[in-house]
């Protein structure tokens, strides 16, 4: 589950193995109307965070064709109407402060370029909102890129420029540990008490070059410091709301959402069940504690550890969240700061087998549209959520950079 831990091939195996849980007799079912399908097909859909590059690094598949595993491939993206998924250039925190982090980032960008090279009639790199719109008119899926974890910058602004030139258009400042830029919401050490001195200077440099600041994963103090320093709106590329997951700092609380609204930014809702409902988070904690107890009893070499999660799920079924609960997050952002400040950041291919019932892969976006219609969102507001809000922020960031 890469949203909290490094992604592994195991996550994809688990997704196939345990998908039966999501089709239990008492599970809700979702059917999109013709109108919802039409809106999904006729609207640019931007997803702020999809982990295809790291997925294909761990276990190579050709996503230009139908694949058996994972959450994304070309046929499913076409079916769902997804035409601008941000490819996450994810660098694990274990590589922080090493040249390997920079190398891996470039290799993952290479993999996105390779996808395009294999199928230029299906995919194209997108480096601007105008390119996303042009590709949409051509019937081509845009692949903009965002870097998850600023570690590859290595304190060197020449690296920032190099990554911009290669197409990086947002940077998630940290991941699961503090790095040379920022504290992480997962790291209790609070090394910098927010941003590092370099991190504070990096905010202005990113503004000036035209890279969006992504505050997903950072600590609360780092978030507020970014808001204070930035001259452009910021994004949370794949975060949800702490109101529904008390104590989970990786999500944003109401005060932070209000500050984000004042800044003009956008929170892009993460679909992973542990981001959406407190029950899934508690299940994950229970799994961790049970694993620790087994290690304490039988040691790190216990053969029971090999299939531990599989066996645990048999005894304690995973409490999948639902599309309706994802919609609750969207509703709450709208109630706090308005429809102009919410978008979609699914974390497909990054949260393993934890996706909500009704939103199991990228073919599911018509279900999301139907849910919004059922909650009386207008078509114009739905289009803002699907892409308009993020494209607005991206354009504002571009415009600021062009003027500085």
Write the layout of secondary structure elements.
Layout: H1 9-17, H2 34-42, E1 46-50, H3 52-58, H4 74-80, E2 84-90, H5 99-118, E3 123-125, H6 129-138, E4 141-143, E5 145-148, H7 157-166, E6 168-172, H8 197-209, E7 212-214, H9 220-229, E8 235-236, H10 254-263, E9 266-269, H11 273-276, H12 278-298, H13 308-315, H14 323-337, E10 342-344, H15 365-374, H16 379-402
Helix pairs in contact: 2-15, 3-5, 7-8, 9-10
What features would you describe in this structure?
- By secondary structure, this protein is of the alpha/beta class.
- The chain has two domains: 9-13 and 33-273 and 326-402, TIM Barrel (Alpha-Beta Barrel), CATH 3.20.20; 278-318.
- Strand 6 (168-172), helix 8 and strand 7 form a beta-alpha-beta unit.
- Helix 3 crosses helix 5 (99-118).
- It is built from 16 helices and ten strands.
- The protein starts with 8 loop residues before the first helix and ends with a helix.
- The model is unreliable at 3-25 (pLDDT under 50).
- The strands form three sheets. A five-stranded parallel sheet has the order 1-2-5-6-7, with helices on both faces. It has a three-stranded parallel sheet with strand order 8-9-10.
Estimated helix fraction:
40-55%
The tally of beta strands, per DSSP, is 10
Number of helices: 16
Order of helices and strands: HHEHHEHEHEEHEHEHEHEHHHHEHH
Largest sheet: 5 strands, parallel
What name goes with the CATH superfamily of the largest domain? Metal-dependent hydrolases
- The spatial strand order of the largest sheet comes to 1-2-5-6-7
**CATH C-level name of the largest domain:** Alpha Beta
Strand content: 5-15%
Distance between the termini: 40 Å
Contiguous runs where pLDDT drops below 50 for at least 5 residues? 3-25
Mean pLDDT: 93
CATH architecture identity of the largest domain: Alpha-Beta Barrel
Cα Rg: 20 Å
Question: How many structural domains?
Answer: 2
| Secondary-structure content class | alpha/beta
- Shape label: globular
CATH topology of the largest domain: TIM Barrel
């Amino acid at each position: 589950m890469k949203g909290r831990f490094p992604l592994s091939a195991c996550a994809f195996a688990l997704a196939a193995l345990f998908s039966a849980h999501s089709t239990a007799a008492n599970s809700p079912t979702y059917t999109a109307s013709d109108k919802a399908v039409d809106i999904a097909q006729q609207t640019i859909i931007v997803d702020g965070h999809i982990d295809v590059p790291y997925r294909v690094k761990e276990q190579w598949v050709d996503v230009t064709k139908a694949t058996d595993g994972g959450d994304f491939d070309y046929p499913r993206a076409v079916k769902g109407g997804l035409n601008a998924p941000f490819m996450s250039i994810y660098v694990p925190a274990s590589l922080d402060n090493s040249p390997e982090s920079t190398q891996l980032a470039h290799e993952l960008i290479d993999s996105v370029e390779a996808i395009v090279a294999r199928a230029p009639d299906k995919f194209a790199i997108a480096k601007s909102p105008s390119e996303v719109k042009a590709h949409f008119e051509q019937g081509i899926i845009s692949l903009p890129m965002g870097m998850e974890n600023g570690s590859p910058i290595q304190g060197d602004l020449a690296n920032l420029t190099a990554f911009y030139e290669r197409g990086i258009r947002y940077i998630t400042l940290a991941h699961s540990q503090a790095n040379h830029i920022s504290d992480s919401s997962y790291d209790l050490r609070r090394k910098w008490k927010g941003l590092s001195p370099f991190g504070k200077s990096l905010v202005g440099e990113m503004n000036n070059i035209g890279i969006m600041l992504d505050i997903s994963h950072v600590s609360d103090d780092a978030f507020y410091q970014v808001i204070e320093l930035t001259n452009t709106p910021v994004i949370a590329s794949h975060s949800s709301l702490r109101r529904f997951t008390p104590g989970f700092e990786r999500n944003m609380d109401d005060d932070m959402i209000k500050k984000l609204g004042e800044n003009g930014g956008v929170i892009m809702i993460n679909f992973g069940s542990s981001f959406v409902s407190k029950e899934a988070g508690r299940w994950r904690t229970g799994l961790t504690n049970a694993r620790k107890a087994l290690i304490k009893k039988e040691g790190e070499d216990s053969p029971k550890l090999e299939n531990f999660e599989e066996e645990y799920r048999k005894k304690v079924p995973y409490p999948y969240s639902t599309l309706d609960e994802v919609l609750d997050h969207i509703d709450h952002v709208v109630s706090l700061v308005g429809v102009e400040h919410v978008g979609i950041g699914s974390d497909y291919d990054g949260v393993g087998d934890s996706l909500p019932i009704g939103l199991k892969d990228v073919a599911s976006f018509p279900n999301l549209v139907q849910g919004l219609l059922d909650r009386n969102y207008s078509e114009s507001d739905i289009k803002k959520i699907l892409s308009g809000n993020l494209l607005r922020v991206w354009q504002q960031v571009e415009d600021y950079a062009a003027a500085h």
